[in-house]
Design a protein that fits this description.
- The chain has 7 helices and 8 strands, in the order ααβαβββαβαβαββα.
- With about 230 residues, it is of the alpha/beta class.
- The strands form 3 sheets. Strands 4-3-5 form a 3-stranded antiparallel β-sheet, covered by helices on one side.
- A hairpin with an 8-residue loop joins strand 3 and strand 4.
- The longest helix has 17 residues.
- It binds zinc ion.
Length: about 230
C-alpha cells in the first residue's frame, strides 16, 4: 500500500479512486490488533507525549489525547494544495468517504476530484514526501507542545520509549532519543523492534533493547485490561 502512493496513475479519477480507498482503510478504520490500546493503558495517567512518523493517526483513533501527539510527517486525513499556494490544510473525511463510495471500475466521477478552495489547483495529501509539504497551524501547535514537553522534562527521570522505528528516517525519533538519553543522566532508553533493537555504547547501561513484536510484548507487560 505504501508503494502505491508513488504509482503514476494515468488520470486523476483513477488516482483518487486508489487514494480514497487507501485513506479510508488506513486513516478512518481502526487497526485490526489492540496494540495502540495496550500502549494507551500503559501511559494513561502519566506525563507522556507521543512523537510519531506514522500518518495514519491510529493514536487518535485509539483514544490518545490529541494535545499529546506530534505527527511530524503529516496526516492521511488532511488535504493540502498541490502547489501549494498557501500554508493551509483541510479535513478530508467527507470527501474521501464520498470518493470511495461513488467510484466505479476503479475511477471516481470527475466532479469529485478535489481542488484547492483557494486557487483551484488539484489537492494532494498532507504528507512529507518533498519540499511542498505544508506545515499547517495544527502541525505548528503540535510541534510547539512537543518542544515545551521536552523542556519540562530536562534533567528529570524520563523514559524514551521507541517503538518500531527503522532506519528510514532515524533523524526524527531514534537519533534524538539517543542524544537526549546521553545528555540526561536520569533518562533511560527502551527500544522494541523486530530485527534491529540496539543502542550505542555510550548509553548502553541505561538502555533496554528488545527484539520482538510490539503487540506481543505490550500484552505481556501486565497492564491491567480496561474491561
Ligand atoms: Zn491552492
Amino acid at each position: 500500500m505504501y508503494s502505491g502512493g508513488f504509482y503514476p496513475f494515468k488520470t486523476p479519477e483513477e488516482r483518487w479512486a486508489w487514494w480514497s480507498r487507501m485513506i479510508l482503510l488506513n486513516r478512518y478504520t481502526r487497526a485490526p490488533k489492540p496494540v495502540y490500546e495496550a500502549l494507551l493503558r500503559l501511559v494513561e495517567g502519566r506525563e507522556y507525549f507521543v512523537l510519531t512518523t506514522n500518518v495514519d493517526h491510529q493514536f487518535q483513533l485509539a483514544g490518545f489525547d490529541k494535545a499529546r501527539l506530534f505527527y511530524t510527517q503529516g496526516d492521511y486525513g488532511l488535504f493540502q494544495c498541490s502547489r501549494p499556494c498557501c500554508q493551509k490544510t483541510w479535513d478530508n473525511e467527507e470527501a474521501v468517504r464520498k470518493m470511495a463510495a461513488e467510484q466505479r471500475v476503479m475511477k471516481i466521477p470527475a466532479e469529485l476530484v478535489p481542488r484547492c478552495p483557494v486557487c483551484g489547483r488539484p489537492m494532494t495529501m498532507n504528507l512529507r514526501c518533498d519540499d511542498r509539504f505544508v506545515e499547517g497551524e495544527g502541525w505548528h501547535q503540535a510541534a510547539a507542545r512537543y518542544e515545551a514537553f521536552l523542556q519540562r522534562q530536562q534533567g528529570r527521570r524520563v523514559l524514551f520509549l521507541e517503538l518500531g522505528v527503522g532506519m528510514n528516517t532515524p533523524v526524527i525519533i531514534k537519533y534524538p532519543f539517543w542524544r537526549m538519553t546521553a545528555q540526561n543522566p536520569s533518562a533511560a532508553y527502551a527500544c522494541i523492534n523486530q530485527g534491529s533493537a540496539w543502542a550505542p555504547r555510550e548509553i548502553a547501561e541505561r538502555s533496554i533493547c528488545i527484539n520482538g513484536d510490539i503487540g506481543d510484548l505490550l500484552a505481556q507487560c501486565g497492564a491491567p485490561a480496561s474491561d
